Amino acid sequence: CETAKEMISRDFTESAKDLLNLLRSINGKITLIQLVDIFRGSSSQKSLKYKHLRNYGSGRSLSRGDAERLAQTMVTQGVLEEYCEANGLGFVSSYVRVGKEATNLDY
Fold it and tell me: Tens digit of pLDDT per residue, the chain (107 long)?
């Protein structure tokens, strides 16, 4: 257990706004992991179809861990909302949409 590490405070407000605006520009269902991949500018086939969006890759300066923590924090704070849907075969998928607290990030 290391106790000598210093905590570093960092403001992710602009990154959060970029992530929220990216989600708003996506038509259709998307998972939180797909959203993070697009936010970071992933070169996967699923992500590249969103390359034309303004905020595609706007989070590339963040590590994958930081980007995922940011997205999860936004879910916890209600800025993003996860919801589940079952398909015809009964398999359940979790998707993300703009949450009720998103207006608190807009200014």
Answer: 566 677 788 889 999 999 999 999 999 999 999 999 999 999 999 999 999 999 999 999 999 999 999 999 999 999 999 999 998 898 999 999 999 999 987 65
- Sign of the dihedral through C-alpha 97, 69, 14, 57: negative
Full 3-state SS string of 32-50: HHHHHHHHHCCCCHHHHCC
Look-up of token digits 């998307």: 30
Query: Whose CA is closest to 20, among 61, 64, 73?
Result: 73
Q: What is the pTM of this model?
A: 0.87
Alpha-carbon distance values, 9 to 6, 12, 30, 33 (Å): 10, 10, 30, 25
Q: Which two tokens stand for residue 36?
A: 């993070």
User: What is d(CA 96, CA 98) in angstroms, rounded to the nearest whole number?
Assistant: 7
Residue among 45, 58, 43, 49 nearest 26 (CA): 49
